Amino acid sequence: MNAGNIATRLDDRLDTEAYADIDASPNGLQVGPASQPVEHVAFAVDAAVETVDRAAEAGADLLVTHHGIVWGGMERVTGTNYRRVAPLIDNDLALYVAHLPLDGHQSLGNAAGVADLLGLDNRAPFGSMGGEHIGQRGVLTEPQTVSELADTLEGKVDTDGQPVQVLDFGPSTVEDVAIVTGSGVDWLQEAVEKDADVLITGEGKQKAFHEAREQGIHVILAGHYATETLGVQSLQTVAQDWGLETTYIDCPTGL
C-alpha cells in the first residue's frame, strides 16, 4: 500500500471533500508523493517538530495528524515551516492531515470519542459549520452533577496533569450533553438552542464565562489537546485493521 492509497481510503472514510470549502486546513496528503510505499504509520495530534522527529525515529513511512502544517496557504518554507517540512522530506516521511472532518465524523471523530467515553445515548450531529457538523450531542444514561461529569473526563483523557475547568452555571444535574472538541465555545449558543445542559469543549474564551452564566448552561473545558487525541487514535485502529504497523505519539501540551 502507498501513501496515495491510504490517503484516498481515509478521505473517503472521513468525507474530507465535504469540508473542503470551510476548513482552513487542506485535508489529505499535505507532504510527500502519493507513490510513497507505506508499511508503518504514526499517529499524533499535532504535526510539530517533536512529533515529526519521533515518527521518523519510530521508522514510520507516514504520519497522520489532526493539526497539520498548512493553514490557509504557505507562502514560504522558512523558519518554523522549514523545521517541520525538512525532517519529513529528509526521512521520506509523508504527512496526512484530517482536521474538521476528524472533529465531526460521527463514529471516528473527536467528539464521538468523547461521547464514547461518557457512554452517551441518542446521539446526533452537533456544531453546525458551513452546512456540516464538527461535533456531537447525546444523553447520559443517568443524570449526574457537572462535577461528576468533569471528574469522569479528567480520569479518561490526557490532561497532562491539568485540572478540567468547569463554568458551573447550569442545572443541578445534567443529562443533555453537547460536544465540540478543541476550541468550541463559539457553539455555546447552539448548545442553548438545542436545550443542552452542558457544553464540553477543550479550551475557553473570556466571553464564554458571561455567556454561559447569562444563558444558564454549564461549560466543561477539558483541554484542547486532551479532547482531540481520540480521533487520531480511532484512525490508528482503522490502519491496524488494514494490516499496517502503527505507532501512537503522545505529546501532551496541558492546554
TrEMBL record:
One of its GO terms (cellular component) is cytoplasm. A divalent metal cation binds at H66, H67, D103, H224, E228. Keywords: Metal-binding. The lineage of its organism: Archaea, Methanobacteriati, Methanobacteriota, Stenosarchaea group, Halobacteria. Belongs to the GTP cyclohydrolase I type 2/NIF3 family. SUPFAM superfamilies: NIF3 (NGG1p interacting factor 3)-like (SSF102705). It comes from the Archaea. Pfam families: DUF34_NIF3. This is NGG1p interacting factor 3. It comes from Haloarcula vallismortis ATCC 29715. The keyword Metal-binding applies. One of its GO terms (molecular function) is metal ion binding.
